């Protein structure tokens, strides 16, 4: 089969045709990314790039279990070679501890639609402000650096059990840095966005300039504990670190902060007296993410066997207490837990504060 670039849906169907073994899953990711980078008060690079990533997962049933094998390639791929490699990898792999019946389904209405796209024009609102910002920075003896990037990834999921899904995930961010020309002070501000229609670089610049001014005044403090007020972007970074530890299996194995003695977890335990809620929802306005499992590889709490399974709203922490940890279907069955797949967003709120992060 020719390695020329073909339509993503056609590529997926070719990968599924005439298969052997215990089934197959194919994921094709079409990505378009635009970016602009700047340093020392001048734009350094800008442009757009495209990429395609194809992943084939084959399953091999033998004895009392199933093994999985994966093969992947970028750009134009020889799909027959990729399928053959995935099948060889499955045949030579040990039985999977996350094995489960593949998710059955049908084709969504938009499965055959073209992939989403973006371009440098998406970043125009940022680019238009840079000249003015550079000028003001130079007047104050400071410099600016940073970048704005926007990526649109369209994932096509197809399986031998009939699942056909398509999801378009836009995402971007701006990171804006200011520093004194002598390097004695620096400040950072950042923001995430879907389409840059809610980004005002002037607001980020105001934050950076104000923080640089604060840094002009220094007070020597003796070692000790001091109350610190963190800005929302710093809190968000800390919550992402907490999210990394929401694995149920790793908690049971004593390998994260949610572990309890005797192979148990801290689910149900109150973590803070403050009424915090940490939740995820694929349909969250402005933070939309894939509403199905899209897994190109298995991990402690995500499984290639779960591809196509629905992903719904999840409260990880509610009223300050731990409510859920992540489990794939096989892990949840073993542990007597609820199947809780990863969700690609997080919302932190506090009932008394009345706001989200």
Describe the structure.
The protein is built from seven helices and 13 strands. With 357 residues, it is an alpha+beta fold. It has a six-stranded antiparallel β-sheet. The protein is globular, with a radius of gyration of 24 Å. The mean pLDDT is 95.
Q: What is the gist of this entry?
A:
The protein is of the alpha+beta class.
Give the topology, please.
Blueprint: H1 8-16, E1 24-39, E2 42-62, E3 65-74, H2 79-92, H3 124-139, E4 142-159, E5 164-180, E6 186-193, H4 201-214, H5 232-244, H6 248-252, E7 259-260, E8 264-265, E9 276-280, E10 314-318, E11 321-322, H7 329-335, E12 347-350, E13 355-356
Secondary-structure element pattern, one letter each: HEEEHHEEEHHHEEEEEHEE
- Average pLDDT works out at 95
Number of DSSP helical runs? 7
Compute the number of strand runs.
13
Beta-strand percent range: 25-35%
- Tell me the major beta sheet: 6 strands, antiparallel
- The residue fraction in helices comes out at 10-25%
Instruction: Give unreliable regions as ranges.
Output: none
What characteristic shape results from the CA principal axes?
A: globular
Strand numbers in spatial order across the main sheet? 3-2-1-4-5-6
Structural Rg: 24 Å
Distance between the termini: 49 Å
Class by SSE composition? alpha+beta
């Amino acid at each position: 089969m020719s390695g020329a670039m073909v339509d993503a849906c056609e590529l997926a169907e070719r990968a599924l045709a005439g298969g052997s073994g215990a089934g197959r899953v194919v994921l094709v990711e079409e990505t378009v990314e635009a970016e602009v980078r700047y340093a020392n008060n001048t734009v350094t690079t800008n442009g757009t790039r495209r990429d395609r990533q194809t992943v084939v997962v084959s399953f091999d049933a033998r004895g009392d279990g199933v093994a999985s094998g994966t093969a992947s390639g970028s750009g134009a791929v020889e799909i027959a070679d990729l399928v053959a490699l995935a099948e060889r990898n499955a045949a030579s792999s040990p039985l999977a501890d996350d094995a489960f019946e593949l998710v059955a389904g049908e084709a969504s209405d938009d499965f055959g639609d073209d992939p989403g796209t973006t371009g440098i024009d998406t970043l125009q609102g940022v680019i238009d402000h840079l000249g003015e910002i550079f000028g003001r920075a130079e007047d104050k003896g400071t410099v600016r650096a940073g970048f704005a990037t926007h990526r649109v990834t369209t994932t096509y999921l197809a399986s031998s059990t009939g699942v056909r899904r398509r999801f378009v995930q836009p995402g971007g961010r701006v990171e804006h840095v200011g520093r004194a020309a002598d390097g004695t002070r620096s400040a950072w501000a950042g923001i995430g966005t879907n389409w840059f229609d809610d980004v005002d670089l002037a607001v980020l610049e105001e934050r950076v300039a104000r923080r640089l001014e604060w840094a002009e005044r220094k007070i020597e403090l003796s070692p000790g504990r001091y109350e610190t007020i963190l800005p929302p972007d710093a809190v968000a970074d800390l919550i992402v670190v907490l999210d990394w530890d929401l694995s149920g299996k790793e908690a049971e194995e004593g390998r994260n902060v949610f572990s309890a003695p005797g192979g148990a977890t801290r689910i149900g335990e109150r973590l803070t007296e403050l009424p915090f809620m940490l939740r995820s929802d694929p349909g969250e306005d402005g933070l939309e993410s894939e509403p199905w499992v899209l897994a190109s590889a298995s991990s402690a709490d995500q499984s290639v066997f779960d591809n196509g399974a629905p992903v719904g709203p999840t409260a990880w922490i509610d009223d300050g207490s731990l409510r859920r940890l992540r489990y794939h279907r096989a892990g949840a069955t073993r542990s007597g837990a609820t199947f809780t797949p990863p969700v690609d967003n997080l919302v932190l709120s506090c009932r008394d504060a009345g706001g989200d992060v």
